[in-house]
C-alpha cells in the first residue's frame, strides 16, 4: 500500500511566482508602454516606468513567495515513530513503515501514527481537537460503533495526527497515508479552490477597460492632430505620451503599497496577513464563520456552579470563597468537602505559577484550579489527607476514586458522571448529617444535571464515604455531596465585538465540532442571533448537494453549526459563497484547513493553531481573538476606500490631461503640454500623492455602514461620472491658463506652455484634498490628517521647482521660468479645481443629511 505518508503536491516555483506578478493587464500594458517609450527615445519615461514595475514586482514577489504550503505542514505531522508489535516483539520503527495489519502500542504523549481500531484500552483519552474540533480529550474504548457514526463519536478508533492525552492502549492499523482521515483532509486542502480575490478581479476588469481606452485615446488624438496639420512625428510622440498618460502608472505600485501598509497596520493589531491582496478582501466581508473554543471562549475549563442539596453556589472567579481564611470556619462544610473531593480525586497536574504548563484533563484541571483559588490546593490537601490508593477512571463505571487517611480514619473521594455516581449513592450529605437518597430524590438530582447540561455546562457528581480498609469497594453506599458544573467561559471581549459586527452589517455564525448544547450556551452568552432554528447539527445536513433551494436557505439562517465534519465546513463555505457572501472562516485545527483555504479569507489561530491551519490560511491571529478579525475587517474597508480614492485621483487627473491636449490638438491651438512634460507630470503626480492616499488612516465611521456589495467595482458608474467631471474641470483650467498666458498676457508660446504645465501639476496636487469623504470636515478630515499627504505635496513641489529652475532638467522638458505674472496666474488657476471640488463635496454632505 506504499509508505505511511501524505501525498506531496507540486508547489509553485520561484519563476512561476515571479511570472504571476506580471499577469495584471495594467502591468502588461505598462511593460508595452515602457518598450514603446524606449523605442521612440523617451528614455526618461521608459526608466521611470521600469522603476515602478521593478518596485511593484519586488513587493508582490517577496510577499507571496511563501504562499500556501499546507501539504508540507501536513507531512510534518506524519514524521513520527511508532511502537509496533511484530513477530511477538515490540520495536520502535518510523511511522512511514506502518502498514495495515500492524499492531501499535499507544502511550500518553504519543502522536497517533495511523488510523487504528483499538483492541484494548487503559484509561485511554485522545485529544482529537485538531481533527474534530472537540474541546476536551475523548475517552476511548473497544466497543464497536455503527459504521455511520460521526467521526467525533467513534470511541473505538484512534486517528492519525491526533495525540494521546492520558492512559495507554493497543490498536490495529486499518488505514495509512492518504487513506487515513488526515489523508482525506489533505486531499480536500489540495483540491480546495482559492481563486482570485475580489480586488484582483476588480483591478483586472479596470485594466481591461484602460487597455481599450488607451488605444482609443492615442488613435483619436493622433488622428485629430494630423487632420489639423500637425507634424507626423510630433503627433506620434503625443499619441504615445497620451496613451501612457491614460494608464495610471502608479496604480500597481500604489495598490501594492496600500495593501502592504494595511498588512503592517494589521500586524500591529496581532493579525499577520499572508496574502497581500487578502487585506482588501477583509473589507468586503459579509459573514464571519468562527469556531468556538479559544476564539469565542477562553479555551480553559472553569468551575462555574456547585449544586448542593438545598442551594446552588456561584463559583465565578469573583465569588469564590477563601476556605483557608480564618473567618471561613463558619463556611458550609459541604462546600468545603465538595471542593476537597474535586481536588483529591484527580489525576491532573496543576501549575499555579504557569497554568499553561499544567497537564491533564481540562475538567480535572478546572477542579484543581478551584481548589487552589479557594485555599484548598491539592498539595496542601495531600499533606492533610495523605493518598493511600487510587482507583483509575473506568469507562464502564464512569467514575474515579481515591482513598485518603484522615484523623478519624480512611475515606474515599469519588467523582464521575452524574448518573453513575447517583446510582452508587444511598444518601445525601446535609449540613447537619445525612439523608437517605430516595428514588424520587435521585430523579430530582438527575433533572438538575440535565438542566445544567442544557445550559452548555459539563457536569460531574462528587461523593465520599468513610471506609474501614483500603480494599473496601469504592462505589457502594456513597454519600452525595453535590454536582459541579464546568464551562469553557466566553471571552470577555467577544460580545461587544459581535455587536460591532452586527452594527457594521456583518453576520457572525459559529461552526464547531463540539456538542450542540455547549455551542448553544456559548452562542447565547456572546450575543449571536439565536432563535428556535438557530442550532443545526452536522447530522442534519450530511450532504448539502442533496438539499433543495428552500432547505439550503433554511440552513443558511442558522447561527450555530455543531458537530460538523471537515467536509461539511468546506460545504458551508461553498454554500455561503454561492449565495453571494464574502466569507471569513476562522479555525485552528487540521480539520479546519480545507475550509480555511476555500474561504475568501481564511483566519488561523496563531497560539493554539496547528501548522496545517496556519499554512492554509490567508491571515494568522497572534492573540486568537475575534476582536483582531474585526479590526482587520475595519482596516480592509479603509484600504478599499483608499484604493478607490487614489484610482479616482489618478484617472481624473489623467483625463484632464487628455481632454486638454486633445481639445487643443483638435481645434488647431498650440499644444498646451509637450509629450515629455506629460510623462514627467504623470510619474510625479501618479505616484507620490497617490501613495499618500493609499496609506491614509481612514475615517472613524468605517464600521458604521454595511459591507459594500461584493460585486461592486472599484470604480462604479458614479465614480466614472466623478472622474469625468473632475477631468473636465482640470482640462478647462489648463486651457484657460494657457490661453490667458498666450493672449491677454502676451507671453511666448514656451512661457505659455510652462504656465499650463505648472498649472496642471499644482492643480492636480491640490486636487488630492477633493478625495475626502463628503461627511468629513472641511479642514479636519482623513486627507488633511495624513502626514504623508503633506510630505508628498512638499516633495512634488520641490521637483516642480527643479524642473523650472535646474537648467539640465528644464532643457529636457522645454520649461522656462513663467515670471511673476505667470506665477500669479498659475496660483489662481490651480485653486479652481480645489475650490469647486470642495463646494461639490459640501453640497453632497447637505444632500445626504437631508435624506
Short summary of the structure?
This protein folds into four domains: 81-180, Calcium-transporting ATPase, cytoplasmic transduction domain A (Distorted Sandwich); 196-270 and 631-850, Calcium-transporting ATPase, transmembrane domain; 290-298 and 491-619, Rossmann fold, CATH 3.40.50.1000; 302-487, 3-Layer(aba) Sandwich (Calcium-transporting ATPase, cytoplasmic domain N). It is built from 28 helices and 24 strands.
List keywords for this structure.
Calcium-transporting ATPase, transmembrane domain; eight-stranded mixed β-sheet; Calcium-transporting ATPase, cytoplasmic transduction domain A; 28 helices; alpha/beta; Rossmann fold; 851 residues; 48% helix
Please give a structural write-up.
The protein is of the alpha/beta class and 851 residues long. It has four domains: 81-180, Calcium-transporting ATPase, cytoplasmic transduction domain A (Distorted Sandwich); 196-270 and 631-850, Calcium-transporting ATPase, transmembrane domain, CATH 1.20.1110.10; 290-298 and 491-619, HAD superfamily/HAD-like (Rossmann fold, 3-Layer(aba) Sandwich), CATH 3.40.50.1000; 302-487, 3-Layer(aba) Sandwich (Calcium-transporting ATPase, cytoplasmic domain N), CATH 3.40.1110. 48% of the residues lie in helices and 17% in strands. The strands form three sheets. Strands 10, 11, 12, 13, 14, 15, 16, 17 and 18 form a nine-stranded mixed beta sheet that branches. A hairpin with a 2-residue loop joins strand 1 and strand 2 (89-94). Helix 8 packs parallel to helix 23 (675-694), helix 14 packs antiparallel against helix 15 and helix 24 packs antiparallel against helix 25 (749-766). The radius of gyration is 35 Å and the shape is elongated. Residues 66-79 have low confidence and may be disordered.
Amino acid at each position: 500500500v506504499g509508505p505511511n505518508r501524505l501525498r506531496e503536491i507540486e508547489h509553485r516555483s520561484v519563476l512561476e511566482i515571479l511570472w504571476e506578478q506580471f499577469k495584471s493587464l495594467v502591468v502588461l500594458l505598462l511593460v508595452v508602454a515602457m518598450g514603446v517609450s524606449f523605442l521612440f527615445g523617451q528614455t526618461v519615461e521608459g526608466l521611470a516606468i521600469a522603476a515602478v514595475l521593478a518596485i511593484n514586482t519586488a513587493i508582490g514577489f517577496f510577499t507571496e513567495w511563501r504562499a500556501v504550503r499546507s501539504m508540507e505542514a501536513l507531512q510534518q505531522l506524519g514524521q513520527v515513530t511508532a511502537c509496533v508489535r511484530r513477530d511477538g516483539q515490540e520495536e520502535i520503527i518510523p511511522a512511514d513503515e506502518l502498514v495495515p495489519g500492524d499492531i501499535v502500542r499507544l502511550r500518553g504523549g504519543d502522536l497517533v501514527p495511523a488510523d487504528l481500531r483499538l483492541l484494548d484500552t487503559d484509561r485511554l483519552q485522545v485529544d482529537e481537537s485538531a481533527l474534530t474540533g472537540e474541546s476536551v480529550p475523548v475517552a476511548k474504548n473497544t466497543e464497536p460503533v455503527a459504521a455511520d457514526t460521526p467521526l467525533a463519536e467513534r470511541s473505538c478508533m484512534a486517528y492519525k495526527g491526533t495525540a494521546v492525552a492520558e492512559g495507554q492502549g493497543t490498536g490495529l492499523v486499518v488505514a495509512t497515508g492518504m487513506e487515513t482521515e488526515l489523508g482525506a483532509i489533505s486531499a480536500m486542502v489540495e483540491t480546495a479552490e482559492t481563486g482570485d480575490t475580489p480586488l484582483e478581479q476588480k483591478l483586472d476588469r479596470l485594466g481591461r477597460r484602460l487597455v481599450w481606452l488607451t488605444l482609443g485615446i492615442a488613435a483619436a488624438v493622433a488622428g485629430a492632430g494630423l487632420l489639423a496639420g500637425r507634424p507626423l512625428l510630433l503627433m506620434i510622440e503625443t499619441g504615445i505620451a497620451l496613451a501612457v498618460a491614460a494608464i495610471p502608472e502608479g496604480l500597481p505600485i500604489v495598490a501594492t503599497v496600500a495593501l502592504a501598509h494595511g498588512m503592517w497596520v494589521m500586524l500591529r493589531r496581532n493579525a499577520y496577513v499572508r496574502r497581500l491582496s487578502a487585506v482588501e478582501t477583509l473589507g468586503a466581508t459579509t459573514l464571519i464563520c468562527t469556531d468556538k473554543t479559544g476564539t469565542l471562549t477562553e479555551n480553559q475549563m472553569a468551575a462555574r456552579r456547585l449544586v448542593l442539596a438545598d442551594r446552588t453556589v456561584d463559583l465565578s472567579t469573583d465569588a469564590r470563597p477563601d476556605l483557608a481564611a480564618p473567618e471561613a470556619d463558619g463556611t458550609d462544610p459541604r462546600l468545603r468537602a465538595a471542593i476537597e473531593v474535586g481536588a483529591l480525586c484527580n489525576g491532573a497536574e496543576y501549575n499555579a505559577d504557569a497554568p499553561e504548563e499544567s497537564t491533564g484533563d481540562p475538567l480535572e484541571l478546572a477542579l484543581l484550579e478551584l481548589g487552589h483559588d479557594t485555599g484548598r490546593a491539592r498539595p496542601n490537601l495531600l499533606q492533610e489527607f495523605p493518598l493511600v490508593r487510587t482507583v483509575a477512571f473506568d469507562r464502564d463505571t464512569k467514575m474515579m476514586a481515591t482513598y485518603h487517611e484522615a484523623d478519624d480514619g480512611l475515606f474515599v473521594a469519588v467523582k464521575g458522571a452524574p448518573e453513575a455516581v447517583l446510582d452508587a449513592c444511598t444518601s445525601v450529605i446535609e449540613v447537619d448529617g445525612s439523608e437517605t437518597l430516595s428514588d424520587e430524590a435521585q430523579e430530582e438530582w438527575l433533572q438538575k444535571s440535565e438542566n445544567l447540561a442544557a445550559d452548555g455546562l459539563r457536569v460531574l457528581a462528587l461523593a465520599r464515604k468513610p471506609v474501614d480498609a483500603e480494599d473496601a469497594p469504592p462505589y457502594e453506599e456513597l454519600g452525595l455531596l453535590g454536582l459541579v458544573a464546568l464551562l469553557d467561559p466566553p471571552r470577555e471581549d467577544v460580545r461587544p465585538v459581535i455587536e460591532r459586527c452586527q452594527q457594521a452589517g456583518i453576520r457572525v455564525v459559529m461552526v464547531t465540532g463540539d456538542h450542540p448544547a455547549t455551542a448553544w450556551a456559548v452562542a447565547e452568552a456572546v450575543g449571536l442571533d439565536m432563535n428556535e432554528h438557530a442550532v443545526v447539527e452536522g447530522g442534519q445536513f450530511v450532504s448539502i448537494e442533496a438539499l433543495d433551494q428552500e432547505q439550503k436557505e433554511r440552513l443558511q439562517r442558522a447561527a450555530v453549526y455543531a458537530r460538523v465534519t471537515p467536509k461539511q465546513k468546506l460545504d458551508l463555505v461553498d454554500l455561503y459563497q454561492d449565495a453571494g457572501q464574502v466569507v471569513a472562516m476562522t479555525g485552528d485545527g487540521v480539520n479546519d484547513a480545507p475550509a480555511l483555504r476555500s474561504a475568501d479569507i481564511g483566519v488561523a489561530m496563531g497560539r493554539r493553531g496547528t501548522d496545517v491551519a496556519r499554512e492554509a490560511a490567508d491571515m494568522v491571529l497572534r492573540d486568537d481573538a475575534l476582536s483582531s478579525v474585526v479590526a482587520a475587517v475595519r482596516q480592509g474597508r479603509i484600504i478599499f476606500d483608499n484604493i478607490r480614492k487614489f484610482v479616482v485621483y489618478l484617472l481624473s487627473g489623467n483625463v484632464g490631461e487628455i481632454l486638454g491636449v486633445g481639445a487643443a490638438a483638435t481645434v488647431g491651438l498650440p499644444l498646451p503640454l509637450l509629450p515629455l512634460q506629460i510623462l514627467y507630470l504623470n510619474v510625479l503626480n501618479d505616484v507620490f500623492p497617490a501613495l499618500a492616499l493609499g496609506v491614509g488612516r481612514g475615517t472613524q465611521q468605517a464600521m458604521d455602514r454595511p459591507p459594500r456589495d461584493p460585486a461592486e467595482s472599484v470604480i462604479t458608474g458614479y465614480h466614472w461620472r466623478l472622474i469625468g467631471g473632475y477631468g473636465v474641470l482640470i482640462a478647462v483650467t489648463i486651457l484657460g491658463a494657457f490661453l490667458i498666458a498666450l493672449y491677454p498676457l502676451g507671453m511666448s508660446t514656451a512661457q505659455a506652455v510652462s504656465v499650463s504645465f505648472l498649472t496642471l501639476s499644482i492643480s492636480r496636487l491640490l486636487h488630492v484634498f477633493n478625495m475626502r469623504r463628503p461627511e468629513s470636515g472641511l479642514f479636519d478630515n482623513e486627507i488633511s490628517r495624513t502626514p504623508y499627504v503633506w510630505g508628498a505635496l512638499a516633495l512634488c513641489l520641490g521637483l516642480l521647482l527643479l524642473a523650472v529652475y535646474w537648467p539640465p532638467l528644464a532643457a529636457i522638458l522645454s520649461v522656462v521660468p513663467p515670471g511673476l505674472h505667470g506665477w500669479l496666474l498659475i496660483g489662481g488657476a490651480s485653486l479652481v479645481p480645489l475650490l469647486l471640488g470642495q463646494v461639490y463635496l459640501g453640497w453632497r454632505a447637505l444632500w445626504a443629511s437631508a435624506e
